[in-house]
Amino acid sequence: MSYRCTVHGPGILALASLLALAACGGDGGGDVPAQMGTRIADVGFMTPESVLMDTIADVYLVSSINGSPFAEDDNGFISRLTADSGRVEDLKWIDGAAAGVTLNAPKGMAIKGDTLFVTDIKCIRMFNRMTGESIASLCVDGTTFLNDIAVGPEGSLFVTDSGFNDGFAPSGTDAVYRLSLDESRPHVTLAKNPELGAPNGIAIGPRGIFVVTYRSGEVLRFTAEGEKTVVMPASGRQLDGIVFSNDGGFLFSAWGDSTVYHIDGTGVVHQLITGVDAPADIGYDPKRNRVLVPLFNQNAVLLYDLM
Prior knowledge:
This protein is mainly β. It has strands at residues 6-7, 38-41, 48-54, 59-64, 77-82, 88-95, 109-112, 115-120, 123-128, 134-139, 146-151, 157-161, 164-165, 169-170, 175-179, 188-192, 199-205, 208-213, 219-222, 228-232, 239-244, 250-254, 259-263, 269-274, 283-285, 290-295, 300-305.
């Protein structure tokens, strides 16, 4: 596998060098060549927003908005794919149109124990990880566009609000929350400010709580207490998803230049995949060292093995 451009730096804070990559290509347009991954298309996805691996069941879960990301139309769905081949095992494993299920515009997903958590506009929907049965909903006051979700080491849920109104106009509710499922413990607002730049993807790992922003194109790091560090300054790249990788680095997707970036454990920046229209909330398969890319505008998912 070849990389189109590489920037070397002294460590993870050398990500500022990423801005120099604009001169190296990756302007977008066109489909990913077949040799650059397995493309799963024409199977029924409808505006796929997020892909998550269930490491226990060895399946990939794909959330499909199926319409407007803002509409409370109860027609969103989640698909199950076999991880070995990417075959669709159940297109509408969880279906908002089914009786007893509420799922409007599903976006980010996370798993804790036997519970699957899914962000859905202003609420978090909970389902049984094995059966898909609806369990409960947790709605968050003062939010407009809950986008991604991750589980902290202590079991709390970390959630982003991108602060969008219908039509993606700023609502001013941009925030990062730490939510507790224990009623005796309060929810915590780690950050809430209209100037946060539309927090989007979130991932939690040894380096801390990482958040990428859509409007400002930043990579931010938070502590559990809410202290913020700018890892990568504003870029205008419209960042969406972020995941940590086996090599101690991480990957993130960018709508602005149609690229998935890989920052390895030494801080070297790679344009891993280029020319992918609207790469949304990426997932990661640690068993196969594979990045999972939902193609928001193409009703497809790309599976790409890292070398």
